[in-house]
Amino acid sequence: MTKVFKSIFPYNQQQIAEYPLMDNRAIASTLTKTARAYTHWSEQSFAYRTEILNKVATILRRDRDQLATLITNEMGKVLPESKGEVEKCAWVCEYYAQNAEAFLQDEAIEADYYKSFVSYHPTGAVLAIMPWNFPFWQVFRYAAPTLMAGNTALLKHAPNVTGCSLAIQKIFDEAGALDGVFQSLIVDTQDVEQIVSSDIVQAVTLTGSERAGASVAALAGKHIKKSVLELGGSDALIVLADADIEKAAAVAVQSRMLNAGQSCIASKRFIVEKAIEDQFIHQLQLQILKLKQGDPFVEGITTGPMARLDLARELKRQMQSTVKSGAILEIGGDVDGANFQPSLLLKVQKGMATFEEEAFGPLASVITAVSESDAISIANQSNYGLGGSIWTRDVEKGIALGRKINSGAVFINSLVKSDPRLPFGGIKKSGYGRELGRLGILEFMNAKTIAAE
Asked: Measured over all CA atoms, what is the biggest interatomic distance in the chain, rounded to whole angstroms?
């Protein structure tokens, strides 16, 4: 019997579709096609590739509602968020279409030569192993720079968003990309090594769990392939005594509950100075009680289901373990299938599950700090280092403290978010390498030194 991936609507667990997996012959054919496409695509002008990416952006906007419906059906986020995700994908396509050529200009270097410089060149096919939580955005933030640089793209998407994977390939095909420039691989985890080991694939990028990242890093190392990993996070949101408490709480809840809490850069640990703890918690309560969990297609619903039943079960385990360790469940806690009520934990401390682990869902943890320095220390007591934010009316102080946070990004008085213009990535067990901005397009380039006497 042919193995299939099933697409299931998380809110009620009804099956939407199923997709047969590729066999070895189909995988080999896909790799051959991407190799053939690279030969031609890498030689095209920036103007040609820009035209294709701009057409992709046009199609995304034209079909926004249809694509957003697919996203919500497959992974459960509320429909307005899905529409916003599609729009952001159009933005990143246009951003790299506009900036890639400038990013990849030769860089002159002063040395003892008549002329010496670094010249940037594509390397080949880049395999992306992508997650389900932002099934379009995660793909496009890798694909836009990869393709504008002259590389080709192979996508192994999460099984539960296979429909999204195929829809993205269809968009590139309609935009007129050369056959094989962007291809979806409907394959199981066990097939990944066959793909990575191919001489056609020159690099691999993964967004996902720490466990998946370790596996892919080992595989890439075994076959001597460049890799970029964007893994989990347990981002700190630090609220200092001089902060705008009402605004900090509103953004904290937005960050934690967006996408039903299923975001690597969501603020997961709210670290608040003791002097304002009660005021901040009161504002959190007001904001969380405004949220409505339910069917993501219904207007007014703010929080859809989690993407899978096992994810909801794991978050419930973390919540119960944290309470058992002495934390207080202040709001929420009800779980019905994949529908997890937005929840708030108080008096969370180091050693508890939601402090030490990434809590991937609509569950916030409040941690008390006795001072600014204590807040920074608590923030850095994590195995992760993806993002974080600091809330204070003294912006310069916030920037100075931000330099002390061990993470790939720190935002002052702002929601932590990915932006095509800004490099994105982590340190420690949050991974390595950068996406987005100029650094993102350079990750899979050959930085070739040329020196002439």
From this structure: 72
pTM of this structure: 0.97
Q: For residue 264, indicate whether it is catalytic.
A: yes
- Per-residue pLDDT at 1 exceeds 90: no
If asked whether residues 147 and 262 sit together in one domain, one would say no
Which position among 230, 277, 372, 435 bears the catalytic label? 230
Cβ–Cβ under 8 Å, residues 343 and 319: yes
Q: Which domain holds residue 156?
A: 4-231+430-452
Whether 196 and 288 share a structural domain = no
* 239 belongs to a structural domain: yes
Same domain, 412 and 434: no
**Could you write out the DSSP letters of every residue in 66-133?**
HHHHHHHHHH---HHHHHHHHHHHHHHHHHHHHHHHHHTS-EE--SSSSEEEEEEEE-SEEEEE--SS
Per-residue pLDDT of 87-119, as tens digits, reads 999 999 999 999 999 999 999 999 999 999 999
> Do 101 and 116 fall within a single domain?
yes
Nearest to 157 by CA among 180, 132, 179, 133: 132
Question: How high is the pLDDT of residue 93?
Answer: 98
- Amino acid 115 reads K
Active-site residue, from 264, 273, 277, 372: 264
